[in-house]
Amino acid sequence: MSEIETRQSPGIGESLLRPDGTLKVTGEFAYSSDLYLADMVWGVTLRSPHPSAWIRSVDVGPALAVPGVLAVLTHEDVPGEKFYGLEHRDQPVLAIDRVRYQGEPVALVAADHPERARRAAAAIVVEYEVREAVTDPRRAAFDPDCPKVHEQGNVLRHQPVRVGAGLDDAADLTAPVVVAGEYEVGMQDQAFLGPESGLAVPAEDGGVDLFVATQWLHADRDQIAPCLGLPPERVRLSLAGVGGAFGAREDLSMQVHACMLALRTGRPVKMVYHREESFFGHVHRHPARMRYEHGATRDGRLLYVKAEILLDGGAYCSSSRAVVGNAASLGVGPYEVPNVRLDAYGVYTNNPPCGAMRGFGAVQACYAYESQMDRLAEACGLDPVEIRVRNAVSQGSRLATGQVVDSPAPLAGMLRELAAMPLPPEPAGGLLDLPGGAGRTTRGEGVRRGVGYGVGIKNICFSEGFDDHSTARVRVELLGGEPHALVHTAAAEVGQGLVMVQEQVARTELGGLGVGRVTVAGADTSVGSAGSSSASRQSYVTGGAVRAACRAVRERLEGLCAGEVPLAEALERHGPVEETREYRHRPTFPMDPVTGQGDSHTQLALCVHRAVVDVDTELGLVKVVELAAVQDVGRVLNRLALEGQIHGGSAQGLGLALMEEIQVAGGRVLNPSFTDYLIPTVLDMPPMRVSILENPDPHAPYGLRGAGEPPTLSSTPAVAAAVRAATGLDLPRVPIRPHDIALSG
Question: Which of 39, 511, 634, 666 is least buried, going by the fewest C-beta atoms within 10 A?
Answer without folding.
Answer: 39
